[in-house]
Design brief:
5 helices; three-stranded mixed beta sheet; about 250 residues; alpha+beta; Type Iii Antifreeze Protein Isoform Hplc 12; 2 domains; single chain; five-stranded mixed barrel; SH3 type barrels; disordered N terminus
């Protein structure tokens, strides 16, 4: 979905740097004809509004924010990107439902469509809007949500929250998984049956297929779990992430 046109490369290389005119990222980053211009990305673009920086193929395009920032600077615009945005999502046309929610001063990610429980968040499902106040755990970048699984029904236009999503489950209940123990050069592996579903970093009870004993493991990937020091590190990392998300 990234589709930078040659005009962007030419702009970066050939156009001399000009005194920056301060601009801000628009809350409704949409385009109607597939040609994405600086005026469609930024408020206050002025004479640079018609400069094309990318094309959109399909319902949305995902632009690298750093490249857009450089392109804007070459065209005489100064976008501070104080929120540290890494990707800009540009959608086709406009959405009146989102427009009504986008009056305010704080830029946040919102859902471009309603999502059902269990769906995976895609780049085209997100858009930047402006609101009066952001959720306490609002993601700073689309990368924090893309590829994650929706935990509950989400309404189109609602501001995104890290509590809305979870890591995709890579093991299903009843799967036969490998249980690995590694420490100080020693590696042991056995087979077990997953007693529940699990995502990477989550604790998972597994029944040893040989002894029928149930042991607590930590999911390391599709079809694999771990016990011992490796499991403790994974669990600690996940707990730290959850504590950060809850702040």
């Amino acid at each position: 979905m990234k589709a930078f046109v040659p005009a962007l490369a030419a702009l970066l290389i050939a156009t001399p740097a000009l005194a920056g005119q301060a601009v801000s990222l628009r809350s409704d980053t949409t385009d109607a004809d597939g040609r994405i211009t600086l005026g469609e990305l930024f408020d206050g673009a002025g004479a640079a509004s018609e400069v094309v920086v990318a094309t959109r193929v399909g319902p949305s395009a995902v632009l690298d924010a750093g490249a857009v920032q450089i392109a804007a600077r070459r065209a005489g615009l100064d976008w501070a990107n104080s929120n540290g945005v890494r990707r800009i999502i540009v959608r086709q046309g406009s959405d009146s439902g989102l427009a009504g929610a986008s009056r305010g001063n704080v830029e946040v990610l919102a859902y471009a469509r309603s999502l059902a429980t269990g769906e995976m968040v895609q780049p085209e499902d997100l858009v930047w809007i402006k609101v009066a106040a952001s959720p306490s755990d609002a993601p700073r970048d689309a990368d924090d949500l893309i590829g994650m699984t929706v935990k509950r029904p989400l309404r189109q236009g609602a501001a995104a929250s890290l509590r809305d999503v979870s890591t995709p489950q890579v093991i299903k209940a009843g799967d036969i998984v490998a249980v690995t123990y590694e420490d100080d050069g020693v590696a042991l592996t056995l087979q077990g049956k997953a007693m529940a579903a699990g995502a990477v970093g989550e604790s998972l009870m597994v029944q040893n297929t040989a002894s029928k004993k149930i042991i607590e493991t930590v999911v390391t990937g599709p079809g694999s779990t771990a016990v011992g020091p490796q499991a403790m590190r994974l669990k600690a990392n996940r707990n730290n992430t959850l504590r950060y998300a809850a702040r």
